[in-house]
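Possible regression after last week's pipeline update?

I re-ran a chain I had predicted before the update to compare outputs. Posting the input and the new output here so someone can diff against the archived version. Not blocking, just want to make sure nothing changed silently.
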Amino acid sequence: MALNLSSQKIIKDWIDYNGHMNVAYYLLIFDRYGADKLNTIFKMGEESAKTTGMSTMIVENNIAYRQELKVDEEVDINLIYFNHDKKRLHYKFEMINKGNNTLSATFEALALYINLKNRKVSEFEQEKILIMQNFIRENKQNFNQEDLKYSSKLKL
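New output (post-update):
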């Protein structure tokens, strides 16, 4: 079972001339309601960027579109995989249409931990490593490693 991070209703502004959600908004939803939520859990989100000058930046991603979404449909954003090394985060989300419980899309990403003052890749502080290790220990049974594109990029 996946770990739910958030739910989101599809709004009219995201619908294109084909009558379904434009591809750009899949990325927006995965970023705001998936990656940002995950970064907040790991104390690497907006608050960290503002107060410590440390944040994450996605450097690679893959989105697979499975089922179109239309206005007023509601989706769940679920984490289905997470791992890290000393500088990188690797995660995968799924977007589930709540109305019919179908998979609408998946998003897999590789992100780097960045010092925003000098714009350089940095190693995670020990506090963040412990948060991530505890998170993995508590949720590993929910992770699915099938079809991962970036797992070989982690230096474990």
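Follow-up from reviewer: compared with the archived run. The radius of gyration is 16 Å. Marking as no regression found.
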